[in-house]
Amino acid sequence: MSLTDNAWETLFERHNILQEIESNGFFEIDARQIRAVREPRLMAKFDHYSNLPTLFKQHNLSILPLSRSSYIIGQFEVYERVNYNQKLRPIQVDFPQDISTIDPTNLYSETSALHCAHITGMIEDVLGEQAFQTISGRMSSREFDFRIRTANGNERKINIRNSQVEIDGGYESPSQFMIVEAKNETVDDFLIRQLYYPYRLWREKTHKEVKPVFFTYSNDIFSFFIYEFTDPMRYNSLRLIEQRDYIIAHEDIQLEDVLHVLDTTQIVGEPQIPFPQADSFTRVVDLLGLLVENDLTAEQITRNYNFDVRQTGYYTTAGMYLGLIERYNVPPSRLAHFRLTNAGREIMRKTTKGKFLSLASRILSHEPFRQVMIEYLQVGAPPERDRVVQIMRSCNLYNINSDSTYRRRASTISGWINWILELPETY
């Protein structure tokens, strides 16, 4: 269990939280009570469902801030699923040649990605009008109340009293004000509060239409999810209007480029590292991007990004298998940290085409991936799982001993090969 899990176990027992929720439908807790076991900022901010403590998941609970020093816990539906439209081809935009303070090949923070989106005209394209960035950062929510859906399908009224609000970007045009919540990774969901609280604040402060937008920058693609709240008084009235994807103009990746990588990549010996169990290579690229900015511990990855504990282990191991991530210990606690290797850092500095073809080469330098790719191309369809397992068994993989493990790892091979073959369609 994580430090956060242990701390919440203590608080639940100390304050009879489950019993209070069963009796009253909710439990209010203040920052002083939380601070008695751990810093509140580490205990009450869970941007994704995967970040929730174990006790919260077990009992279908979530937590929302009521003010700067108090929170409410209950069976509230606080997250919105994000479903990426994989058929949406990104719109190419040009990067201004006279801009020298933003590097479009190094956008590994939400702020830099948003600045790039603004100067390349993406923001104005979404709004359909000329726009200026006018706000960002922390501010007070003022007072308002709303109704939120609970796990049993009912609603509960909640009153907010000057809670802290943080906006990643606010962009004003002649008739609209766009509030943006940004993440520099592909996500499964997001916390509606991050759009709803700012929406309620600014709806009272401007006569213009307030447009809530969730934004991700992942694998060089800028994705805008444009929403509306159909009933401003209801937290769960969020409705997706449109998704728009953009990419900085680049040299296209052709199937011939992928075939050239397959023909020219040299096979390497299998490392003494567990074979990957990380089906989404997009998430591997996200993790590499996170490590461009900072070295991170496993807990930091799990707490701050859309990874649960197991996924953090799976995806860091996948990066180590490819020689792109390394693990090291920091004295005196000997706490494990993860960082990019020199090869990983060199690849992540490349332009879009060079980066993704280099990553494809890293994958195809391993015999099981190469063989599956060749069979896929020869037959024109992905090999069946039994055939993938048969190929894996012939490749002397490290420390795989059971048929069930082979079959689980086989889905990683299929997922990564699909990622390679989809490069020409996406980029």
UniProtKB/TrEMBL annotation:
Coiled-coil stretches: none
Domain DUF6997: 74-247
Chloroplast found in the keyword field: no
DUF7226 domain sequence ranges: 283-424
InterPro entries linked: DUF6996, DUF6997, DUF7226
Occurrences of domain DUF6996 (ranges): 5-73
Pfam families for this protein: DUF6996, DUF6997, DUF7226
Keywords: Elongation factor, Protein biosynthesis
GO molecular function annotation: translation elongation factor activity
Protein name: Translation elongation factor
Native source species: Heliorestis acidaminivorans
Lineage: Bacteria, Bacillati, Bacillota, Clostridia, Eubacteriales
